[in-house]
């Protein structure tokens, strides 16, 4: 009777150990599935965020291009005005003009 109970106990322990061992790969595959699902969610979030950033950057670039197109004629006009002002200032600072002014000031001072 001791032999039969030992065989039954051995079979039961072996069945329990086999069930535990077979559940481990299932646990790993479940963990791996969860990990892959989480990585998929993170990838989706990154893709969404990348699209949002790309859209905002494209909008900012379009705004900058429209501003630069609008400012080009204005900048050209400002540059022409500055050039005319500089030309008239340099003409006023010409040495014959300064001598004439100094003579006029000297004459009025006397």
Characterise the protein shown here.
The chain has about 110 residues and is mainly α. Helix content is about 95%, strand content about 0%.
Tell me the count of domains: 1
The main β sheet shows up as: none
For the termini, the CA-CA separation is 148 Å
| Rg, nearest Å | 45 Å
Instruction: Please identify the oligomeric state.
Output: single chain
Low-confidence segments: none
Q: Structural class, from secondary structure content?
A: mainly alpha
Number of distinct beta strands: 0
The geometry reads as rod-shaped
Short key terms for the protein model shown above:
110 residues; mainly alpha; 2 helices; rod-shaped
Question: What's the gist of this structure?
Answer:
By secondary structure, the protein is mainly alpha-helical. Helix content is 96%, strand content 0%. It is rod-shaped, with a radius of gyration of 45 Å.
